[in-house]
Design brief:
It holds the Pfam family ECH_1. The chain has 262 residues and is α/β, with parallel strands linked by helices. It folds into two domains: 208 residues, 2-enoyl-CoA Hydratase, Chain A, domain 1 (Alpha-Beta Complex); 48 residues. Helix content is 47%, strand content 16%. The strands form two sheets. The chain has a seven-stranded mixed sheet with strand order 1-2-3-4-5-7-10, with helices on both faces. A hairpin with a 7-residue loop joins β1 and β2. The protein is globular and about 60 Å long.
């Protein structure tokens, strides 16, 4: 397996290239269970943008560090408590826009989730295109227990994926739920027995995706997300436009990846 470290030096994450076309981004804050501070989110965003700008990378895996075996236990509450009222009002040091930048990553993202994915950790997983998880993983949005609400898309994506009634129950109680329910409701695509099997599955899936046409990958992701965000009518128009583009490209040889692979 090819493994090349990212030349950029990160403090809270690790980035490496696996299987030639797959970028692995691992959260690495073991002392605080990978709590997501603005600094962590900015590093994640930087790593994703670097992968987007690298034509050799076609798929990204986002995972917790193997030593910790936790995806992310939530936001960095200690950091949040250091913010003044003025900071909060002016959104200074909060970097809320980083969530959208992560979600808008152009290349497919696979979340390999283990242990806990709570609060911001759950929201980070839902920013990805496909979620894989171990069978013992627990998800949840417990922010209400702190007197606040999710801020990284939890109320919105939970509702779209889980349905209004179950989403309301979860965000109003802060209860956790298991990977089996997450899989049954479509939040998680596939379950694995342990971390080792999870990472093998994530790498295999990312490797399969990375072997497809880069143009088709990008257009497929955009089509699915457009339906998810804007509804069926808009999604159908986008899908048909990209189908026509793909057919034209195939006739011109633009969708053929053989020349690049040689």
């Amino acid at each position: 397996m090819l493994e090349v470290s990212n030349p950029h030096s990160y403090q809270y994450i690790r980035a490496s290239t696996r299987l030639e076309r797959v970028r692995l981004v691992e959260l690495h804050r073991p002392a605080v269970l990978n709590a997501l501070s603005p600094a962590v989110l900015l590093e994640i965003c930087h790593a994703l943008q670097a992968a987007d700008s690298n034509p050799e990378i076609r798929c990204i895996i986002l995972a917790g560090s193997p030593e910790l075996k936790v995806f992310a236990a939530g936001a960095d509450i200690k950091y949040m408590l250091t913010l003044s009222s003025e900071d909060v009002l002016n959104q200074k040091g909060m970097h809320l826009g980083t969530w959208d930048k992560i979600y808008r990553t152009l290349k497919p993202m696979v979340a390999a989730v283990q242990g806990l994915a709570l609060g911001g950790g759950c929201e980070l997983a839902m920013c990805c295109d496909i979620i894989l998880a171990t069978k013992k993983t627990r998800f949840g949005q417990p922010e209400i227990k702190l007197g606040i609400i999710p801020g990284g898309g939890g109320t919105q994506r939970f509702t779209q994926i889980m349905g209004k009634s179950r989403a309301m129950e979860l965000v109003l109680t802060g209860d956790m739920f298991g990977a089996v329910e997450a899989n049954n409701r479509g939040l998680v695509a596939k379950l694995y027995d342990d971390y080792e099997d999870l990472m093998k599955g994530a790498l295999y899936l990312a490797y399969r995706i990375s072997g497809m046409s880069p143009i088709a990958i990008a257009n497929t992701k955009r089509s699915v997300n457009e339906s998810f965000e804007l509804g069926l009518t808009s999604g159908l128009k986008t899908e048909q436009a990209f189908l026509i583009q793909g057919l034209l490209n195939s006739r011109l040889g633009e969708g053929d990846d053989e020349e690049e692979d040689e």
